[in-house]
């Protein structure tokens, strides 16, 4: 059986279609129709990926995204929304979502996004550990420590940090970061990079408003320094 995918969708026609489509493609798809049921299934079933609708009858998708990201950073979240406004996309990403897809969507695009998220999360690491000042990055356990305290990084944030560390003191464009962290098949814009950089700064920097590790290179992108 393939990766377990939790679909959180209250509309029966759409939810049933998504379950059938993913199961036919070899995934193990399960479904929740409410936010409360989704939170229960997260604890019971431990899915690898959650397809999370924003508009639900009880708890909205943004609140679920925030809770799951804090309690289970190892679970990847793809927001599913009928609204294409940038503010919704950015809010979801800021709360911990890894990707988003807009209704109505092509089933093959949905499958491609799921596979891309799983591929990035499971990508093997070649080295074991890197220490940069108070930061210790354990590639085997996929954990980051600051002053000995583990940081709650999502899989995407961990991958982003790894890209920065592998390119110390090198200015990277947003497109380069997008390709390395999200993959060349990612369909989206560079605002995604800015949102995830902001979230990563909040977790590794002493003062995110005056970062010493992740610097903004105006007109280009970002640069990671050792923080000396």
Automatic annotation (TrEMBL):
Residues covered by the Response regulatory domain: 4-118
Q: Quote the protein name from its UniProt record.
A: Stage 0 sporulation protein A homolog
Keywords in alphabetical order, please: DNA-binding, Phosphoprotein, Transcription, Transcription regulation, Two-component regulatory system
Which SUPFAM superfamilies does this UniProt record tie to the protein? Answer: CheY-like
Family matches, as Gene3D superfamilies: 3.40.50.2300, 6.10.250.690, Winged helix-like DNA-binding domain superfamily/Winged helix DNA-binding domain
- Taxonomic lineage of this organism? Bacteria, Bacillati, Bacillota, Clostridia, Eubacteriales
- PANTHER family (alphabetical): REGULATOR OF RPOS (PTHR48111), STAGE 0 SPORULATION PROTEIN A HOMOLOG (PTHR48111:SF54)
Its biological purpose: May play the central regulatory role in sporulation. It may be an element of the effector pathway responsible for the activation of sporulation genes in response to nutritional stress. Spo0A may act in concert with spo0H (a sigma factor) to control the expression of some genes that are critical to the sporulation process.
- Which CDD domains does the protein's record reference? trans_reg_C
**Gene Ontology annotations of biological process type:** regulation of DNA-templated transcription
A GO MF annotation of the entry reads: phosphorelay response regulator activity
Q: Which top-level group of life is the source organism from?
A: Bacteria
Q: Which residues carry this modification: 4-aspartylphosphate?
A: 53
Keyword GTP-binding listed: no
């Amino acid at each position: 059986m393939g990766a377990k995918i939790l679909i959180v969708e209250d509309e029966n026609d759409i939810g049933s279609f998504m379950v059938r489509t993913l199961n036919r493609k070899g995934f193990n798809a399960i479904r929740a129709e409410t936010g409360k049921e989704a939170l229960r299934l997260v604890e019971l079933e431990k899915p690898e990926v959650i397809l999370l609708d924003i508009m639900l009858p009880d708890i909205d998708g943004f609140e679920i995204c925030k809770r799951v990201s804090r309690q289970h950073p190892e679970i990847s979240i793809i927001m599913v929304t009928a609204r294409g406004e940038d503010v919704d996309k950015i809010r979801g990403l800021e709360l911990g979502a890894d990707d988003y897809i807009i209704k109505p969507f092509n089933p093959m695009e949905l499958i491609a996004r799921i596979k891309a998220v799983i591929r990035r999360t499971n990508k093997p690491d070649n080295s074991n550990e890197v220490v940069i000042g108070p930061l210790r990055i354990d590639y085997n356990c996929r954990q980051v420590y600051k002053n000995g305290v583990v940081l709650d990084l999502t899989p995407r944030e961990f991958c982003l940090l790894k890209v920065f560390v592998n390119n110390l003191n090198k200015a990277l464009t947003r497109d380069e970061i997008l390709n390395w962290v999200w993959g060349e098949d990612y369909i989206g814009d560079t605002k995604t990079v800015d949102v995830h950089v902001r979230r990563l700064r909040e977790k590794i920097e002493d003062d995110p408003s005056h970062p010493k590790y992740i610097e903004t290179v105006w007109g280009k992108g970002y640069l990671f320094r050792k923080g000396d």
